[in-house]
Amino acid sequence: MAGTALEWSGAFQARVAGPSDGALPRFVETPALRPPATVRERAPASSKLLISAKDSPHFQSPRGTAGVAMVRLGDLYAAIDDDAAYAQLPAMVAQFVGARSCNVQRIDRAGQTTVQQFSYYDRNIMEDYAARFSGELDMWTQAGLTSGILNRAVPLDDLVPETLFRASAMWNDLFRFHGDDTGHSLGLVHRFDGAIMATSFHRAWSAGAFSPAEAARLDTIGTDLHRIYHARELLRRRAEDRLAWANMLDAHQATVLMVDAALRLVEASPNGRRLLDTGDGIALRQGHLVFSDRGPAAAIRNAIAETFRCRPVEQAAFLCARPSGAAPWRLLVLPAGDVANRCLLLVAPSEPDAARRVRWLRGCFGLTDAEMGVAEGLLAGRTAEEIGDRRRITAATVRTHIRHILEKTDSRRITALISLLMSLP
Length: 425
Prior knowledge:
This protein is of the alpha+beta class. It is 44% helix and 17% strand. The strands form three sheets. The chain has a five-stranded mixed beta sheet, with helices on both faces.
């Protein structure tokens, strides 16, 4: 059997896959959805079973249109944010198409294949499939991926003749091994940035190949499945981003608040949550940050908006008064890396030992007294004009001092300098 599988594998790859260059071929765009034209990597055989649906009642649909279930779009779209509905999706669309079973697989940017949902098959055969056959040994899925067809039905029975399938490891070592008579398949491929969704429909040898009419029936819900998969992909990425940032903030010893443009709190470090609980100067009201000192609120919003637009921020550090009479909070606005429309607010008391900071700045960076005075002004959130007025020098002289400070501290931006100053021991 091993020799037969190898002979089949070479013939199939030469006929369908083309040269093995480690990348999937170009896909055909459909006018309605216009997905990206290429897929970067072929899925390897390695995979993992993420979610398995409860065993569905075995359903054998007759050929043709007789007995085909009607699918309500509302039932399909419930699968976007309802995992229970998503678990029922394969059985629903399989019945609609006239198939006995349906598998939904996701292939990530690295080529890792995961079986997300399935119907009809029991858990034993799906675990065996996920461990040994998903990826390159699944000749139906590979034929769909290499067919060049996106967002519409892929006639897998035409791409994989019966003689090839009966000689394959998938038929002999999976279906026959488990006593299953699956022998025909119809496919659907959707691609998003960084992920491919492959949906395959199957039925028994005795039910015959899928007809053009059944492929056309699948096309009527192809766009809906695309939207469902795409929406779930966006929700999955958002959940992963939130989890990553939550883990980072939980491990952060500083007082960090993540907010959006409206100062709505998205995440907070443990110290940040404690700060908000006290409500001394910075509090949470209806999910948004509010400041006891209303003076800097508008300027903070402006700094956040400019940070979102990746523009230079004239003022990124602010002092926020505290009703308790304690020294004001010193607040620094920073970009939140790859998280879109989010900013980090780094909060610290404005009362570290000034003499110690002066010694530190002079000893480590060689700042002059005038430069240290300007640095203190920046740390307090003052503009060049305000610093000049306080020190009785021109704003141009202040900017010259700022340029020298940036050079001596190897800081490219004022925000980086202020972050350095806030981290001083």
